[in-house]
Sequence to fold (289 residues):
Amino acid sequence: MHDRQADDSSITDQALIARTAEGDRRAFEQLVERHAAAVLRLATAASDPSTAEDVMQQTFLSVYQQAASFRAEASVRTWLLTIARNTAFRLHGKTRQEDLVEEPLTQLGVQAGWGSDDPEAIAIAAERKGALRRAMASLSAEDQEVLTLRDLEGLRGSEAAEVLGISLRALKSRLHRARLRLAASLRRLGTDDEQASIGGQP
Amino acid sequence: MIETAVAGLRCSEVLAQLSDYLDGELGASEVKRIEEHLLGCPNCERFGHNFGSMVVSLRRAPDGTESVDSKLVSRLLTQLDELTHEE
Fold:
């Protein structure tokens, strides 16, 4: 998309939405350029890598059609990501696990390496982007969504809670548990890689 | 995990507040108690340090290019053309 005119960063997202509502195609393209990567990441978390592109397309078509309904006091990114999540859920949503009984936090901690002699394993594995991607992909949609919004996209807690339709308190609890489960997954990957490496030696 | 109480906090209480601590969501007195616990508890200090490093790596993970495949965007704009011509 970089053969198109460069993004004019002096124009705010709110102004681009207003222009899009008036049918300004170039303003819409700039919105896509600014936010497509974030929408694609959340779509991947909320649906599946194989359907995320479809979710992204439908999200931006909805944005084009609904631009006039955007309220200026909201964050454009939060609004876009809310539409993306709803679209993913409607089209290809994974089975939600919200009714399951939560594991005790100490159990999650132990799986993540709390109290073990190898807590470094999670930090070492997290430095490898491939391992981080695999560990993320092994988590539930709920965990991937909250990690994507808070840690990958850098949304504030209140913004992430708004996208997910939950309270700030619930958001914080979900985020902490998701990070512990990510750490546990990274720790397992680190151990697997180590064993594979030992097994591969002549 | 053998729990200890340091600075009036048990290890499981520190574990429960680790993300809030890393995200700067705690008040000054809670931060002080957690930091005193971490200073006196090597297990929690090691885990907290590595857990924090993992979060930092995660936050750095998105590619700096911040763009998606140009074919994907072209397809989207074609779909938009079809949609606007139908209306």
Summary: Residues 1-5 of chain A have pLDDT under 50 and may be disordered. DSSP finds ten helices and no strands in chain A. The longest helix of chain A spans residues 168-199. The domain at 13-92 of chain A is CATH 1.10.1740.10 (Rna Polymerase Sigma Factor; Chain: A).
